[in-house]
Task: inverse folding
């Protein structure tokens, strides 16, 4: 009997349907992202950090199989038990795993088999939910929701990883043809280049602020416990740093002046011979970059992206500012809308910066002066990714989701053009090592009071 024909075995008025609708929406979006990819594209691993598309398809499926089906379906027997080894990422408590840097060597299962695996697990999840009573649903729902958010994280990685794969290819493959943003708001933003101006700084007084998630709705464990933090007075730039501003840093010899760089950053710049953000090339005296819509001239009005923490920090020093702390960022984002250029806009690239110099006298709320806090580019903060006071990872394999990475990484805030709108929060803490550049990472300046 198919799920569609199945009578309701529980009283949960539409609960299962709602859970499954959301589940399928996220699962289908992953598949939709792959539209236009050829089988050869799914398999390449261009560096250890970037997993093949096929691996993302299977790993997100493994998550639901491992943490839901194996746990809640009595006598569950995986169709292909070896997938547990192949598609475990880093969960030691869930068993051994294949080497991360060798994921590109795996030609089997084929793309078709990976897609079949997805469909098979989806149908098992459907059956489980349709047969579940309310008590069982209470147990399953938090993990199902976690699995959905996990998949949305992998959707972003799938995009940045295929960008890296295509970025190595002299043919400059196009992932999606260039297009304007869907929303009217976006059209207004992108159609008014003359209104763009220099950024300004928005001032915030010293305050004690509640930091972290308040428990309403889903959040990762690393967003809590909510706690009070004293945030001294600071100022935050009204918008992210643009390509045009970053080119001034490059042309001003920023990459060759050690006084702006952290020691580790200076070592990295010299070892890696960085001269510009990832994907940038100088072509006949002008900067060009590879985008998911192909190779094109750098637009000076777009937020700069694909910069490391080291570059963000060096730029801030050069510009006479600094990076914000994650607490300053969260405080500044507290009352503003979560709006911006997200993956649903299908631009797959940061949008030109918004109006910045036209703040009218009537506007009093500080958040109205801040633009592009969400979407476009993840904003590096100067905060080390560490536990909030009182944080404890949950016991078991799912405790490995966040807690064990709280070392040698920096927090990024706000989401990017590859993040889902329904995935980001004001309290969301993304994190990467300071030398990483393949995510849509950018810069917003802060400064101390004069
Ligand atoms: Fe994962």
Result:
């Amino acid at each position: 009997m198919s799920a569609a024909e199945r009578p309701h075995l529980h009283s949960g008025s539409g609960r299962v349907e709602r859970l499954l609708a959301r589940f399928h929406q996220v699962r289908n979006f992953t598949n939709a992202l792959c539209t236009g990819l050829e089988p050869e594209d799914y398999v390449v691993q261009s560096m250890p950090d970037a997993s093949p598309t096929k691996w993302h398809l299977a790993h997100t499926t493994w998550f639901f199989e491992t943490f839901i089906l194996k746990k809640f379906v009595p006598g569950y027997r995986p169709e292909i038990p070896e997938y547990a080894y192949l598609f475990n990422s880093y969960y030691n408590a869930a068993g051994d795993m294949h080497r991360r840097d060798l994921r590109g060597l795996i030609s089997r299962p084929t793309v078709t088999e990976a897609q079949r695996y997805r469909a098979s697990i989806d149908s098992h999840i459907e059956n489980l939910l349709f047969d579940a009573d309310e008590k069982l649903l209470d147990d399953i729902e938090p993990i199902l929701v976690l699995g959905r958010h996990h998949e949305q994280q992998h959707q972003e990685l799938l995009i940045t990883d295929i960008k890296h794969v295509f970025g190595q290819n002299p043919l400059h493959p196009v992932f999606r043809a260039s297009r304007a943003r869907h929303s009217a708001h976006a059209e207004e933003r992108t159609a008014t280049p003359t209104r763009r101006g220099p950024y300004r700084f928005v001032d915030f007084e010293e305050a004690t602020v509640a930091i972290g998630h308040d428990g309403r709705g889903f959040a990762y464990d690393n967003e809590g416990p909510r706690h009070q933090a004293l945030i001294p007075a600071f100022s935050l730039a009204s918008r992210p740093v643009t390509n045009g501003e970053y080119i001034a840093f490059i042309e001003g010899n920023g990459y060759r002046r050690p006084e702006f760089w952290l020691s580790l950053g200076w070592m990295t710049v010299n070892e890696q011979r960085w001269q510009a953000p990832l994907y940038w090339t100088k072509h006949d005296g002008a900067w060009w970059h590879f985008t998911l819509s192909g190779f094109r001239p750098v637009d000076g009005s777009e937020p700069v992206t694909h910069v490391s923490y080291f570059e963000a920090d060096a730029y801030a020093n050069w510009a006479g500012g600094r990076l914000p702390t994650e607490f300053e960022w969260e405080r500044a984002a507290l009352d503003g809308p979560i709006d911006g250029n997200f993956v649903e806009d299908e631009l797959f690239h940061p949008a030109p910066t918004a109006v910045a110099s036209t703040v009218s006298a009537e506007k009093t709320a500080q958040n109205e002066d801040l633009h592009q806090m969400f979407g476009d580019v993840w904003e590096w903060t100067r905060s080390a990714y560490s536990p909030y006071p009182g944080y404890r990872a949950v016991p078991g394999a799912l405790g490995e989701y966040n807690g064990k990475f709280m070392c040698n990484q920096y927090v990024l805030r706000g989401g990017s053009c590859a993040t889902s709108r329904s995935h980001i929060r004001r309290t969301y803490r993304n994190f990467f090592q300071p030398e990483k550049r393949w995510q849509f990472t950018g810069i917003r300046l802060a400064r101390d009071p004069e």
